[in-house]
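INFO batch 0412 | record 1 of 1 | parsing
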Amino acid sequence: MLGKLNHVAIAVPDLAKASALYRDTLGAHVSAPQRLPEHGVTVVFVELDNTKVELLEPLGAESPIAGFLAKNPDGGMHHICYEVADIAAARDALKANGARVLGDGEPKIGAHGNPVLFLHPKDFAGTLVELEQV
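INFO prediction complete | emitting tokens
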């Protein structure tokens, strides 16, 4: 079912500062910021040869990232994203095996323009898992 690792997401309190750290200190290529109001975040991608790191900053107090940062004010790993070929088939197989899909269970369009779903961290060793159809 799982394909490649797509990205690891890190919640940050200051996207500009975190972007500069990756770009200027680590020498990485960092994408331009992208606002995703439907997800309540602004994101950038640190592009690596074998994967990406997504830096997430909340868009307002109602963002799920704002709640995460309230508990982790310095930021930290938020989720891991795996690629799948067919997100609906993956969702259905996971649900049949007892996994919980967050939200209404319907894919939303993510930062790459592809359908995404999130899986409950309690079902995956304490890790929030994102699936992205590619």
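INFO post-check: The chain has one domain: 5-133.
INFO record closed
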